[in-house]
Amino acid sequence: MAISLNSGLTVAVSRSIRQTPLYNVNLTTNPFSFNCNFSLTPNFSAISASHRSSSVIYSSTGTETPVVSEDTINVLDDVQVFDLNGQGVPISDLWKDRKAVVAFARHFGCVLCRIRADYLAAEKDKMDAAGVALVLIGPGSVDQARKFYEQTKFKGEVYADPSYRSYEALRFVSGITTTFTPGAGLKIIQAYMEGYRQDWELSFEKDTRTRGGWRQGGIIVAGPGKNNITNIHKDKEAGDDPDIKEILNACCVQG
Q1: Which of 111, 114, 209, 250 is most buried as measured by Cβ atoms within 10 A of its Cβ?
Q2: Is 164 exposed, middle or buried (CB count within 10 Å of its CB: 0-12, 13-18, 19+)?
Q3: Is the pTM of this model over 0.85?
Q4: Other C-beta atoms lying within 10 Å of the C-beta of residue 46
Q5: Rounded CA gap, 227 and 242, in Å?
Q6: Dist. CA 39–CA 24, nearest whole Å
Q7: Chain centroid, CA 195 distance in Å
Q8: Which portions of the chain are predicted below pLDDT 70?
Q9: Partners of 11 in the β-ladder
Q10: CA angle (173 as vertex; 192, 191 as ends), nearest 5
Q11: Maximum Cα–Cα distance across the chain
Q12: DSSP string for residues in 203-228
């Protein structure tokens, strides 16, 4: 498998998954196009299951065993995110008086984050019935958040974190080696085959390239109560979505 970007980076991988060889997969990107040529289609469901089973998830049945440290809680208490109208909100207010599933996108242009938005939104009726809010936060500006919302028609609430402080507080992983992985590359191919597209204009904005492009996100289940974070999934790589049943179980929603 080879992933080639116009920055000159090439990640070459040769391996097999469940005895299925990966043949010459060439991804060539630029700010306005994406070309994908491959000779065989791998077993995406097997790959997806393999990566989900190794996801990093911490959970607790109550506040007596918190899944994040007190220091993290204190930092989050000072973090502001911004709604689509540009109104600042302390991030912990998003779950202070309610239970919420809060998803953190890699960045607003990311194609795999659009899959995350859809995969969570597909369960929103169940969350609504259980009184659980659905929230998505992305690192970037309010304008980027608005464009993401307009493009995806996300059913939940969307907020921007231009400071990236929530990502830093939750210690989400970062680095080029967590972004360009064999699993992420195959998921991108699958996403394009399903009709999803990266927004290259958003992806190549300076702040995203210099700060947010390499940082992964995650999903937390929190509230009611500012200090009550009962479940946290930290993406190990781009597109590392946990099994939706794990998220629903964590917020006591009937799957």
Answers
A1: 250
A2: middle
A3: no
A4: 12
A5: 23
A6: 7
A7: 18
A8: 1-66, 207-213, 254-255
A9: 3
A10: 5
A11: 53
A12: HTSHHIIIIITTB--EEEEE-SSTT-
CA–CA distance, 159 with 178 (Å, rounded to integer): 24
In a 10 Å sphere around its CB, with 0-12 CB exposed, 13-18 middle and 19+ buried, how is residue 44 labelled?
Answer: middle
Q: What are phi and psi of 204, to 5 degrees?
A: -100, 10
For residue 215, what pLDDT is reported?
86
DSSP the chain: -EEE-TTS-EEE---EETTEEPP--EEEEETTEEEEE-SS---HHHHHHHHHHT-EEEE-SSTTS-SS-HHHHHHHHT-EEE-TT--EEETTHHHHSSEEEEEE-S-TT-HHHHHHHHHHHTTHHHHHHTTEEEEEEESS-HHHHHHHHHHH--SSEEEE-TT-HHHHHTT--BSHHHHS-HHHHHHHHHHHHTT----HHHHTSHHIIIIITTB--EEEEE-SSTT-EEEEEE-SSTT-PPPHHHHHHHTT---
Closest CA to 159 of 219, 228, 89, 96: 89
Amino acid at 222: A
The amino acid occupying position 233 is H
